[in-house]
Design goal:
340 residues, alpha/beta, Rossmann fold, 15% strand, globular, EC 2.3.1.122, trehalose O-mycolyltransferase activity, acyltransferase, AB_hydrolase_fold
């Protein structure tokens, strides 16, 4: 068993134990609409290992192992069912350092608390560090290893599971992500226009074929997960580089609600007292995302996309920024998805 598998196993046992103790109390205290929510939320769905487990983050989140034929393994997904059996879904994609034990949207932004009273199913895939949630052309490492097929999982295998067990429509979804996940969210929405009605990019890199971008992405995927970026595309000259660049891959976003944001990289009050190295890296990453997004936006508007942008004057590449953006866009998501 690999280290990641052992970590996942430990995490599953720990979260299940916590949830077993706390679920009853949570059902009574999570807020308005509790009684109507229980009918759709208080039972565990089937999954590849028998049935899902209650997740330690609570708020009716289930931890489900979904079999992925394309990846040859189970992929864990944290799922909060819609409050009143609605068929809308919100996919939340993690950043380049996506943990193997949980989706950080559930832990660092407490997304399930924000949508606990709403008629939308939260879909939070676990893992995928450095993969940009796409189908890789070759093994993820320099010396072999699995070939990730995240796009196939997220757009073919997972939707079928969600429809069958959670009632989520394959054609009634929103997708949002941070950093690496934001880049992926824009590409997935453009590549699968029938699946996603809305795409939201928080601090995303939306111009990945600009000079220097390939080298930067190579450093990112190596630093975060020791992956070989050449194997994502097939080669440095592969046409997939353009196919996976939101700047050259935006036609599929026509008719959708699109939201993009990135802060300036300037420290705000929330950054006071944090370690200087982390602040410097966070500033550089957010400033890069800001420049990339601002370069993307004029072209998107020129071809007629329905874009709303937000560029906060203060903020760096951190969870304070992304938590704020999810809270800010919560109403927008619910309006577009008709999921209040």
């Amino acid at each position: 068993m690999s280290f990641a598998s052992r970590l996942k196993s430990v995490a599953r046992k720990a979260t299940a134990t916590i949830a077993a103790v706390a679920t009853a109390a949570t059902l009574a205290t999570v807020g308005a609409g509790t009684a109507s929510a229980q009918g759709h939320r208080d039972w565990l769905r089937p999954d590849a290992t028998g049935h899902c487990e209650w997740d330690g983050v609570l708020f009716w989140v289930q931890r489900c192992d979904v079999w992925s034929p394309s990846n040859g393994r189970n992929i864990t997904v944290q799922i909060q069912p819609a409050q009143r059996a609605g068929n809308a879904g919100l996919y939340l994609l993690d950043g380049a350092r996506a943990p193997e034990a949980y989706n950080a949207w559930a832990v660092d932004a407490r997304a399930m608390e924000k949508f606990v009273d709403n008629n939308i199913t939260l879909v939070m895939p676990v893992g995928g560090a450095g993969t940009f949630y796409t189908d890789w052309a070759g093994p993820q490492g320099f010396f072999g290893g699995p070939t990730p097929k995240w796009e196939t999982f997220l757009t073919q295998e997972l939707p079928a599971y969600l429809q069958h067990h959670f009632g989520v429509s394959p054609t009634n979804n929103s997708i949002a992500g941070l950093s690496m996940g934001a880049t992926a969210a824009m590409n997935l929405a453009a590549n699968h226009p029938q699946q996603f009605r809305q795409a939201l990019s928080y601090s995303g890199y939306l111009t990945t074929t600009l000079p220097g971008a390939f080298a930067l992405m190579g450093l990112v995927v190596w630093d975060t997960a020791q992956l070989n970026v050449n194997n994502m595309y097939g080669s440095i000259m592969s046409p997939r580089r353009a196919e996976l660049d939101p700047y050259t891959n935006m036609e599929g976003l026509r008719g959708k609600d699109v939201y993009v944001s990135a802060a300036s990289g300037v420290w705000g009050p929330g950054e006071i007292g944090q370690p200087i190295n982390g602040l410097l890296v966070g500033s550089a990453l957010e400033a890069s995302a800001n420049a990339s997004t601002r370069y993307w936006e004029p072209k998107a508007r020129a071809i007629g996309l329905n874009v709303t942008s937000d560029y906060p004057l203060l903020g760096i590449h951190n969870w304070q920024q992304w938590d704020m953006q999810l809270a800010k866009t919560r109403g927008r998501i619910l309006d577009v998805m008709n999921a209040w």
